[in-house]
Amino acid sequence: MSAALADALAGVLRPVLGDGVVVENLHALTGGASRTTWAFDALTDARRALILRTGPPDDVHASMELEARVQQRAAAAGAPVPHILAADNSPAALGNPYLICDAIGGETIVRRIYRSLDDDGRARLLRQCAQALAAIHRADHRGIGVPPADQLTEWRDRLDEMGDTTATFEWAFRWLAAHRPAPSEQVLVHGDFRMGNLIVDDTGLAAVLDWELVHIGERYEDLAWFCIRAWRFGAAEELGAGGLGSVEAFLSAYEDAAGLTLDRDAFRWWLTVATLRWGVICRYQAERHLSGQTESVELAAIGRRVAETEWDVLDLLQGGGPR
Fold this sequence. Notes:
Residues 28-242 form the Aminoglycoside phosphotransferase domain. Pfam families: APH. This is Acyl-CoA dehydrogenase. This protein is an alpha+beta fold. It has 2 domains: 2-102, Phosphorylase Kinase, domain 1; 110-317, Aminoglycoside 3'-phosphotransferase, Chain: A, domain 2. It has helices spanning 2-17, 64-76, 110-116, 119-138, 151-162, 167-178, 219-225, 247-258, 264-290, 297-303, 306-317, and strands at residues 22-31, 36-43, 47-54, 84-88, 98-102, 186-189, 198-201, 204-208, 215-218. The strands form 3 sheets. A 5-stranded antiparallel β-sheet has the order 1-2-3-5-4, sandwiched between helices. A two-stranded antiparallel sheet has the order 6-9. Strands 7-8 form a two-stranded antiparallel sheet. A hairpin with a 3-residue loop joins strand 2 (36-43) and strand 3 (47-54). Helix 4 (119-138) crosses helix 8 and helix 6 (167-178) packs antiparallel against helix 9 (264-290). The termini are far apart.
């Protein structure tokens, strides 16, 4: 399969890199539930390290062509993203829709990133994350087909589709619906901006990855998702923003980068939504295992995290949680 895929890749890249392009060292990096990532070298007059992402078309994730358009708009606004060479929603060339971009050096494994950072490095990376989000949110999203999404409705529907719930989840959904803050500006939302989806090198944030959940929504959604407990990866409570620094330091850095003032009460509402979202995701992953759709010890273990997420939701509703 790799040899055939390499030949097909060379054909895709010829209009971009020239007729003499040769593909070498093609190997899969990850194979998730929906999309697979490959690394390879393209040889012309020089060797160029590239990344291929493939996956079947679906109604949940952004198309490859939309991902490409969004990343180009985000790059124009100043966000660090890989340079894209080609993207196509058609499966004709490679068997599935695809996106090809330059490889970016650096680390994505969060615990390794934490070990490499001193206090100054953590503070620098936190500021860079805030600056990257500010750039994404000011990107021009008009005219490229980015869909709107309402997180509270979406995750309520996801939970209902499973036919299973908890008292905590039900109370949280009702409380959130009754106490929703006034809507704020609609912006380009990454949808999964967090540690683990960032490449970090010696200079800090090198690239923002995994744009398949991009949509139009409120900026608070991205800010809150970065600050839920799951994306601290065991870091101390006071490092509530991605395990890098305090939530307040992160929000202040974002305000400086975006040139606006955030509503802390609105952020806290969105932080509760984000935490509840993670709880529903944990329950959904467990359901994939329990239903026999994808038998996996890892998915079953993620299901056990529903209870900790319920605790976090209750803590937020009672006025606790990260500050």
